[in-house]
């Protein structure tokens, strides 16, 4: 008889364990399925299988331009360095401190010297772990670097104790802004390396770096009249002024220069956020730090520091031009008073949320109007010079350190033979540029500005005019000493138009005198125009900073006001007011009135405190998360769904957007396919088996393809967008675009979340590195060139963010208020140029609202402006929608949004099911699918597809693996339970047959 003791405890434990694991796997599968879109993108998991048809045609519609990854990577590394070399701007070069001698021995100072800013943080961040450093870049040019000092800065203790501090997470809050810190090493921490300085004393190169990133604006310090300004965690709280340790560093270097240890001091400004420049001017800061040379280098990208090395060594002569006005005190920018968001004082009364993912009660006012950057500083300067009434006490020379467009060189250039000719729709500017130096070859950036008359009509109708606006530019080839080049720049007449939002309610061309000038920067342009009007330094008692050159000015007179020529877009759409609801002085929400800044009364309109608005019942109602009430449900017929018409998406290759065959194709879609594509658009567009549509992959890319989520082959991180713009080189940035397209093609991406097209409203925006400039003309022109290059490889761009997402604080739902002239002439102009000139396919909308209406639910913006006026045919995607309720599905669809950047079905997908029988909403879904499919069919996603190919949906491998795991665990649970039951039965049998115990 078998008397072996049954293993009841063992099988009990194993049964319980396998049962728990089975339940956990089932629950895990349920959770994983909720995030299937994210997992498919992250794991590069396919959800379909292509069934090839019979075809012999070439289906590689977009071809790679490189034969190998190695060839592509090597070319792009050189290209990135070239962009930096052409974009970096030389600000100061006293005593010919630069370039350095080929055998120079230098010491590198500042934490930034060993920890450069290659790019910002957030969605635009990139992996630069293999990027060259400053030491390597200099040594490649034959310059010797102080190893002892380098090793000290790189030591574990220094890197631990003295590294930049940035916000720990993307939180969009005021509190996040305070977390930035410079945290520079004190001079005392360098004592162990001090004995090495003399040997490497040809130059002390100091690097001042500042970081920026998504979700947190930079702290600007405090101001007694404005409690909305944000103070950082160290010093005065102003992140963009030099810290106490940086000032201490400069003082000690000056002492060492004075005693002969160092021959010169060179400063590199490694930041896309403009530092305050007072430290470069002893008359402003009150102390001479002995700085001989300074160069702005922005964020350098993966190999851009090699370009900086070439500039410092003189292999390349600087030719970059600033794309922001650099100030002695950044708080002199009038936009600062309304930059950080603030809450409606009575937000709680109306239960308006002021934090979280669904902000309703925070607002920002663009009170400065069109006077962004140099448009303010130079316009007010002109009014002061001319003695205009109410210009006020304004001194350009103590306000502006370096004007927009400024950039010095190792050589000098002269302009001559300036001429302008007029045609029906353009002006042609020609001039000769000559390298008048004797030693260095170099390129020169020629900038053309115009001035529009500021008329009585303008003043009466609330129209504002800047003293100068950039309207054209060109860059010469490399000119040897004594060499010349004839430059031709075409200026469209439409650049002279201005928007009249109050009377004509369209674009007008004012009557009066217009001035054109070729200039080196915005200030030089205004001085030239002032000279043409008869003003001189002597004649203005020194109010004018420098006499202008009248030989570089041409005047054109428009005899009568024209309100018809530019009252329609290129496609014939009538242009009229679209954004009155974003103007607090016109909006039906009426949160209060705002006095816009005006050159007719600088002293009375330049802000001295934030604009004050108050919530009301109408505004609160318009801020509700869903506006659609279902009354349109039966206004249209239910579209056909699930038809078996036999078409595939590939059969639409080459078809126009309005081709009637699209209707036949769209009839094949099922409701679930539309919902899946529209609501789960996180980094992809979903496959649709009914029409043979492949899934596509999209990725972030303001500085180039990040591929942070999916990995893969190497992609180049280019310089920050401001450095690209600072090259003023359209052909060069078009080549950057082509190479970004090549990266996408090589790594299987069809869409790019970029370029970034918001404005540098102030120096403190967290994402200035993702955006081009303070000026919409250079931003739009450079963007259009980049877009053309990217899309030439079948990659559709999503211009982001359209529009007014110019700051990060409370960005998720912030109410943004501005007038229509400002919206059109400044903040929508980049998108205008990128779409009309660059052919951009798509846009990504912003987190923000226009007034009370979320960007993605603003029909006047998406349908009226983008699609009707500009003729955009591609799709509109939201910014990351996640579970945000205010980025409402039905309101967005009605207004023209097509796809939600969301991996989670909790909100949008679930909500879509409620509208399956609403013909109006289903029709909007169908329209959205038309935009999505038209974009995809014209992209590289169709490479390899012919009209005879079909698609079959399959489970992605990870789902198959989970199901297999569940099955295995379930079987194991059953087996363990069976063994447990056997053990229990055996235990009972043994108990029943056991001898009775004698109780005596």
SSE map:
Layout (H helix, E strand, L loop, with lengths): L7 H27 L1 H7 L5 E4 L17 H19 L1 E5 L11 E5 L24 H6 L4 E2 L1 H8 L1 H6 L12 H4 L25 E7 L34 H15 L6 E6 L11 H4 L7 E4 L7 H10 L12 E2 L14 E2 L18 E4 L8 H12 L14 E3 L10 E10 L3 E10 L9 E7 L4 H5 L8 E7 L8 E9 L5 E3 L5 E3 L3 E8 L2 H11 L20 E6 L43 H4 L11 H6 L38 H6 L4 H9 L4 E2 L10 E5 L20 H6 L3 H18 L3 E3 L22 H16 L4 E7 L12 E3 L2 H8 L1 H8 L5 E4 L3 E2 L2 E2 L4 H11 L6 E2 L11 H7 L12 H5 L6 H19 L12 E4 L3 H37 L7
Pfam families: Fn3-like (PF14310), Glyco_hydro_3 (PF00933), Glyco_hydro_3_C (PF01915)
Family: Belongs to the glycosyl hydrolase 3 family.
GO molecular function: hydrolase activity, hydrolyzing O-glycosyl compounds
Helical content class: 25-40%
| Separation, N- and C-terminal Cα atoms | 28 Å
| Rounded mean pLDDT score | 93
Shape: globular
The beta-strand count equals: 30
Number of helices: 27
How large, in whole angstroms, is the Cα Rg? 32 Å
CATH C-level of the domain at 86-332:
Alpha Beta
Transmembrane segments: 957-978
Keywords: Hydrolase, Membrane, Transmembrane, Transmembrane helix
Family: Belongs to the glycosyl hydrolase 3 family.
Protein name: Glycosyl hydrolase family 3 N-terminal domain protein
